[in-house]
């Protein structure tokens, strides 16, 4: 496919400009996808606000976006399982396939991963992208490309549930009711966890958690979450806590609210990168900490959960902006965090 395409690129902190790029040609093992929806992730917002995440520094012009869904329009010579017209969700990280982590199935830890919208690799706030067939997952007829775009954050939620060894009979608490907290809650429900409570400071987000299936919510602006969990569990504490807010306060609360021998899964990144935690209590309770870095082997499971109606991905979305309005979408995502749970760009 010849010609050029439009891309929305960061042109500095808080600035978006549109540019023209060549439409990529798929390699023999790749497909060309016309993008239809791309989710706005917290990392996109952080790059937009600050220009960097740790050692990853944006050098303009830089294209954000790593949560894509779209339709295949062209296939490479060696592609066997996809055809033009297939609707797909794209897993955004290409790994080396040869390192210790790839060979043992932990490919999300590959040190040579090429990941959309992680500098210097451009993301997918653009009209087309060429991507390996093995990382493009065909969507069932009853799963839209909007939902396909949100399989990426849902994969994080399922990985968190897997890391926490979630299962029937458990009581779990999710700290934070942003997008990742909500998809983690739905993943826990899909794994059969008996009761899932969600903690946040923002009422709109808590209402969204109830709408999407939480058994109860705790407004941390009105009550102590630890005392609330003790009340809800009749003093026993919870079996599993998933921390998505990325704060020292909420992490300490997880330690206090879980029962002895419990799992705590850390998903949210701390702004400072450091925390001071009560390790004597951690040792006394013999707690297990697990952490989450993206996901592995999750997309088929996540797509199946959506197709079966067990996970309501559309319900997470609060704001949809057209591709011509990316600047407005990013500005509003920064300025109206109390009302926006999930923003999606529509092409």
Commentary on this structure:
This protein is of the alpha/beta class. The chain folds into 2 domains: 4-150 and 317-346, Quinone Oxidoreductase, Chain A, domain 1, CATH 3.90.180; 157-291, Rossmann fold (3-Layer(aba) Sandwich), CATH 3.40.50. 27% of the residues lie in helices and 28% in strands. It is built from 11 helices and 20 strands. It has helices at residues 42-50, 100-103, 145-149, 151-163, 179-190, 203-211, 225-232, 248-257, 279-284, 299-307, 326-335, and strands at residues 4-10, 16-22, 30-40, 52-53, 56-57, 62-63, 67-75, 87-90, 93-94, 114-115, 128-132, 136-138, 171-175, 195-200, 216-219, 238-243, 258-266, 288-291, 319-322, 343-346. Strands 3, 7, 8, 11, 12, 19 and 20 form a 7-stranded mixed beta sheet that branches. Strands 15-14-13-16-17-18 form a 6-stranded parallel beta sheet, sandwiched between helices. It has a 3-stranded antiparallel beta sheet with strand order 2-1-6, with no helix packed on it. It is globular and about 65 Å long. The relative contact order is 0.15.
Q: How many DSSP H or I helices?
A: 11
Distance, first to last CA: 19 Å
User: Which fold name is given in CATH as the topology of the largest domain?
Assistant: Quinone Oxidoreductase, Chain A, domain 1
Q: What is the count of structural domains?
A: 2
List how many beta strands DSSP finds. 20
The protein's oligomeric status is single chain
Using the CA coordinates, give the radius of gyration. 20 Å
Largest sheet: 7 strands, mixed
User: Quick one: overall form?
Assistant: globular
- The pLDDT mean sits at 97
The H-level CATH homologous superfamily of the largest domain, spelled out, is Medium-chain alcohol dehydrogenases, catalytic domain
- Secondary-structure-based class equals alpha/beta
Task: Assign the CATH architecture of the largest domain.
Answer: Alpha-Beta Complex
Which range does the strand content fall in? Answer: 25-35%
Helical amount among residues, as a percent range?
Answer: 25-40%
- Give the CATH level 1 class of the largest domain: Alpha Beta
**Poorly predicted runs:** none
């Amino acid at each position: 496919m010849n010609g050029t395409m439009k891309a929305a690129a960061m042109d500095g902190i808080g600035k978006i400009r549109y540019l023209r790029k060549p439409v990529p040609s798929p390699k023999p093992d790749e497909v060309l996808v016309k993008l239809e929806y791309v989710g706005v992730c917290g990392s996109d917002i952080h790059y937009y606000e600050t220009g960097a995440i740790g050692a990853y520094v944006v050098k303009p012009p830089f294209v954000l976006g790593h949560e894509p869904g779209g339709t295949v329009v062209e296939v490479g010579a060696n592609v066997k399982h996809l055809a033009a017209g297939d609707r797909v969700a794209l897993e955004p990280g290409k790994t080396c396939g040869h390192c210790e982590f790839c060979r043992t199935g932990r490919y999300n830890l590959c040190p040579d991963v090429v990941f959309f919208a992680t500098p210097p690799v451009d993301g997918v706030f653009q009209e087309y992208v060429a991507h390996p067939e093995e990382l493009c997952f065909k969507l069932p007829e009853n799963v839209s490309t909007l939902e396909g775009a949100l399989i990426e954050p849902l994969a994080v939620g399922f990985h968190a549930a897997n890391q926490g060894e979630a299962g029937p009979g458990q009581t779990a608490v999710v700290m934070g009711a942003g997008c990742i907290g909500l998809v983690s809650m739905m993943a826990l429900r899909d794994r059969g966890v008996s009761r899932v409570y969600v903690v946040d400071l923002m009422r709109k987000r808590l209402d969204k958690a109830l709408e999407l299936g939480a058994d109860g919510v705790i407004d941390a602006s009105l009550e102590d979450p630890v005392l609330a969990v003790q009340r809800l569990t009749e003093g026993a504490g919870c079996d599993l806590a998933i921390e998505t807010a990325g704060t020292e306060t909420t992490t300490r609360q997880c330690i206090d609210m879980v029962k002895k021998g419990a799992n705590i899964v850390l998903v949210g990144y701390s702004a400072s990168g450091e925390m001071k935690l009560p390790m004597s209590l951690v040792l006394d309770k013999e707690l297990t900490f697990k952490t989450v870095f993206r996901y592995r082997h999750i997309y088929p499971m996540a797509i199946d959960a959506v197709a079966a109606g067990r996970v309501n991905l559309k319900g997470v979305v609060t704001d949809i902006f057209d591709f011509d309005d990316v600047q407005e979408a990013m500005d509003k995502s920064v300025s109206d965090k109390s009302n926006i749970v999930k923003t999606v760009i529509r092409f």
